[in-house]
Design a protein that fits this description.
Strand content: 15-25%
Number of strands: 22
Helix content: 40-55%
Radius of gyration: 34 Å
Largest sheet: 6 strands, mixed, barrel
Structural class: alpha+beta
Shape: globular
Oligomer: single chain
Length: 819
């Protein structure tokens, strides 16, 4: 019996090649798109799942309020927080502080390896997190000062060991940065998994910061300096929200309102499992993803597969009249309804199986391009990856696909098997009005999704283009950023040395200027929390961003000076305590209550207990992306061996310019590690998630539109076949080609118009909500909906017009002879 069902199903598929091809191709593209997206979704949701303590791991984040206003929402806080929480609450069973050392240069013998990512952690870090040691003792590896745990790849880079020889790295020493005391390797871990929200090459013992010549008092147990990240481990079964509810008392105890830190401190916990995707924090410790991208793509995947199933249902039921005689004959010769249902289900199963095979082939073909798009090397294995919701996403989508296959197969099977044989064989069969209404509703649903995706693509494109084209208040084009000379000691001669270096750079053909800053454009800067005017009430304090800049910084970035002057050489001093001049941006002058930029010039302001004089006011510029509001900012005249050096170049011969810059750099800073990047690339990395969302949204929206068009093509083809005689009669009676095309197109266009009306308000609501994440954004203009509607109508017309025109030009005599 099964063989008979398969043979008959295969015969029907071959007999109706065009409709079968449309169904199979549409389903295959839908399935392939779903499988690709599911890989990415599972990968993004799998972050930190390798941690065996993950259900009990949390990071502390800190909101600060000043004058009743939120001034900082960040992951950095005070060094004493974790220890204090463990002391105060029995629910906290362990904690670890984390202090990023940044990108360091590691010297091993004569080798210098740059851009090594190092973080200092307490020894408890190794037991809390599952970065398992392959060599060394986890219990003691980071208990002593100047101890390092390195990754297997780092061991290979530093000492040339790997595989079973990793243990030979234990006891070896390296020099980190300019520190003269060697660091000893006490452990080696496996390489950090790609799906870890923490990334490192080196784990340094936290106690190193408190030892020897590095007596950082605030790094031990302090509530005034906030440069530290904290992770805590809760007792299994603890309700972290209930613990959070106790934190106001914690703040009162340790901060006494704002007496200790000058701000009202509020603390919260975030599950580590959410750290990668759910971050709206400042001062993130690592790269983050976007829940909007993940869930947005998952929704698009569902839209795509639903459109494919709708195509199958529509085409199967639309062909009901064609299959009616087949059903009538089968019933007359004794076929039961259940047998007919099984026959049609087998046909559907075979089509879906062929589609799945084709989808898998498409998956392998499209995988390299998809991996390039998302920037990760994924494969089909990620379809079975455990995520932070277990296997719910995989099983849910698999269950949905199976359900969709069953429903899309069962409904046509039920409809086709229900025909009454007597009426069919007498030629009195006509399509059910309910069936026609359902097909129209499904077409409207398909194109409503299509229109919504077109609107979404246009809005996302406009927002990304707006961010890329917006005036930043500065010019970052053609700026080469040199990594700082970290192996050079800072002394009284360093400022003159760096100034001379930057002057020499400006003599290179192709270089028009150079400057340095503590924090490069596109990155976080520091904050000062105790700023006030000297001539006003000392109880009113303000918060501002701060940055230390060299001479020439303002000119290099073409930042407009609104009042006063730029820094000159006499404003600088190697002793930071002797600095007294500063520059404000316009937003800072307004915060301090100056009516105009000019009014601020010469005025004194306090930053903590130090008195400073305002010598200049500059225009506002976007230090960070347009997701964030412009902030009040102060600039101080300062140099550092940890400041990246910006070199303005022209585009004539960049490779030759880089060679000349390197030669000058090596001459002034011998022994340092030369490395560079381009500032515009670095700045635009802030929009990486948005660009990914835009590209992926557009590509997969294109898939959805293509599948919807396949369905429309099939329906228009079938409708034309059903109306062959009618077309012939109309042509004989004098109907023009235009009349025939309009006749065949009007019903479908009417459905598309209804879809536009339905989709527009829904798309407006969704995209309006998405845009709220950006401080500076485009409006969802009326013309976006008009363009999307016209595009949808144009796509529909282009899809059905070929068949309509072909039918209109057909010989009416042949049409009238057709059965």
């Amino acid at each position: 019996m099964l063989k008979s069902y398969l043979t008959t199903a295969w015969r029907n598929i071959r007999k109706n090649k065009i409709f079968s091809a449309i169904n199979i191709i549409g389903l295959a593209i839908g399935m392939a798109a779903c499988l690709l997206i599911l890989q990415f979704v599972n990968f993004e949701l799998s972050y930190d799942q390798f941690d065996k303590n993950l259900p009990d791991l949390y990071r502390v984040y800190n909101d600060r309020y000043q004058n009743g206003k939120l001034i900082q929402h960040g992951t950095i806080t005070y060094s004493g927080i974790g220890k204090a929480m463990q002391n105060d609450y029995p629910e906290v069973i362990d904690h670890s502080r984390v202090e990023p050392f940044g990108k360091l240069i590691v010297s091993s013998g004569t080798k210098k390896i740059g851009d090594q990512n190092a973080i200092a952690v307490d020894n408890s870090f190794l037991s809390m997190f599952s970065y398992d040691l392959v060599a060394g003792d986890q219990r003691t590896a980071l208990k002593q000062p100047y101890s390092l745990v390195i990754t297997a790849s780092a061991a290979k880079r530093y000492f040339g060991v790997g595989g079973n020889d990793l243990a030979s790295a234990l006891g070896k020493t390296v020099i980190v940065g300019t520190d003269s005391i060697p660091y000893k390797v006490t452990g080696v871990t496996k390489d950090v998994p790609e799906n870890s929200h923490l990334a490192f090459d080196i784990l340094a013992s936290y106690v190193t910061m408190l030892a020897g010549r590095n007596p950082y008092k605030e790094a031990d147990y302090d509530f005034t300096q906030s440069n530290f990240w904290h992770y805590i481990q809760l007792r299994p079964g603890t309700d972290y929200k209930a613990l959070e509810a106790k934190f106001p008392a914690f703040s009162d105890k340790h901060f006494q309102g704002n007496k200790v830190s000058g701000s009202v401190e509020k603390f919260y916990l975030q599950p580590v499992s959410r750290a990668h995707l759910y971050s709206d924090f400042e001062y993130e410790i690592g790269e983050t993803g976007s829940a909007t991208v993940v869930w947005g793509l998952l929704i698009i995947a569902l839209f795509i597969i639903v459109i494919a199933w709708v195509n199958y249902i529509n085409l199967s039921t639309a062909r009901s009249a064609e299959r009616a005689k087949e059903v009538g004959v089968r019933k007359v010769i004794g076929a039961a309804k259940s047998q007919l249902i099984r026959q049609f289900l087998m046909e559907s199963f075979l089509i879906n199986t062929l589609a799945l095979v084709l989808a898998v082939l498409l998956l392998f073909v499209l995988q390299p391009a998809f991996n390039t798009l998302i920037g990760h090397q994924l494969s089909y294995e990620y379809l079975l990856q455990r995520s932070n919701s277990g296997y719910i996403i995989t099983l849910g989508l698999l269950g949905l696909m199976l359900s969709g296959i069953f429903v899309s197969a069962f409904y046509p099977a039920f409809v086709l098997s229900s025909f009454r044989p007597i009426l069919v064989l007498k030629g009195k069969f006509s399509s059910s009005k309910k069936g026609i209404v359902l097909r129209k509703a499904l077409v409207v649903g398909q194109f409503a999704i299509t229109v919504a995706l077109i609107i979404g693509s246009l809005v996302i494109y406009r927002q990304i283009r707006f961010m890329n084209k917006q005036d930043l208040g500065m010019n970052i084009d053609h700026v080469l950023m040199l990594k700082p000379p970290m192996l050079t000691n800072f002394d009284s001669a360093f400022i003159d040395k760096e100034n001379t270096f930057m002057h020499q750079l400006s003599q290179i053909p192709g270089v028009t200027g150079a400057a340095s800053a503590f924090n490069p454009m596109g990155g976080e800067t520091g904050r000062d929390f105790d700023i006030r005017r000297a001539d006003q009430d000392k109880t009113v304090n303000f918060t501002m961003r701060n940055n230390g800049i060299s001479a020439g910084f303002i000119d290099l970035y073409k930042i407009r000076i609104l009042a006063g002057r730029d820094f000159v050489n006499t404003d600088f001093n190697a002793d930071y305590n002797k600095l007294h001049n500063l520059i404000l941006n316009e937003k800072a002058t307004k915060l301090l209550g100056f009516a105009t930029p000019q009014e601020a010039i010469g005025k004194s302001i306090y930053n903590g207990n130090r008195l400073w004089t305002v010598i200049g006011v500059i225009d506002n510029y976007h230090q960070k992306s347009l997701r964030f509001q412009l902030e009040p900012t102060l600039l101080v005249p300062a140099y550092s061996t940890y400041s990246d050096i910006a070199v303005k170049v022209n585009s004539a011969d960049v490779p030759a310019t880089v060679v000349a810059v390197k030669k000058t750099y090596d001459a002034f800073f011998p022994g340092n590690y030369f490395s560079y990047y381009f500032l515009d690339d670095h700045y635009n990395e802030q929009y990486a998630n948005d660009r990914l969302f835009g590209k992926a949204f557009g590509i997969f929206a294109g898939f959805a539109i293509f599948i919807a068009c396949l369905g429309l093509l099939g329906l228009s083809l079938f409708a034309t076949m059903q109306r062959t005689k009618e077309i012939g009669v109309r042509k004989v009676l004098g109907a023009s080609v235009g009349n025939i095309v309009f006749l065949l197109s009007s019903d479908f266009i009417r459905l598309v118009v209804i879809a536009i009306v339905i989709a527009s308000p829904v798309a407006w609501f969704i995209m309006h909500r998405w845009l709220q994440d950006f401080a500076y954004r485009v409006d969802v203009s009326w013309w976006v909906f008009a363009v999307a509607g016209l595009l949808a109508i144009a796509i529909a017309l282009a899809t059905i017009s070929y068949q309509a025109i072909r039918a209109a030009f057909a010989n009416p005599v042949k049409a009238l002879r057709s059965e």
